[in-house]
Task: structure prediction
Amino acid sequence: MTLRVVLEAAAQREASIAEAKAAHKIVVAWIDMADALPPTYIPTETLADAIGPANDILHTEVPVRHRWLVTGGDQRQHRRDLRQLALGLLSKSERWRCDAAIDLTTATTSGPRLHLLDRFDVADLPSRRRAMVLRRAVTFDRKVDSVVVAGTLKKPMAKKPDWLQAVWIEAGHTFGGDHQKAA
Result:
């Protein structure tokens, strides 16, 4: 073996070590980032800060008597730990209420002032009622011009409030509701 071959091998070894160190640094950085994120992939505190202005609008636009808590369960626990609450741990109903609150806030500030609420069936029964009362309040107070609520239910509503237009869609056909009035 010549000196040149030995020096080339040593240089290759040093290059391999440098490459491994660089790769290790990248892996450690990715692990640190992953450790900083909750299961929903957005840090809860960052999300809370980002939706702070939306919360402010929601609390000023919606009359106090119609406010409903976004999360269920032990309310004292949620109030105390809301900033650290992992959104991925919320129930479907709780996540739906969060989405509905954000959408309502957007509807009150958007140009068309249209509130579209899908997956109504995901909410638990008390939340459905409170959600409808809230939507009625914001339309009567002229905070929102139109509300469209959609969901998959077992059967049409047995008793419908006078202020609500309900349309049942089954197998591509519509039943109930005054379509001329809706247009």
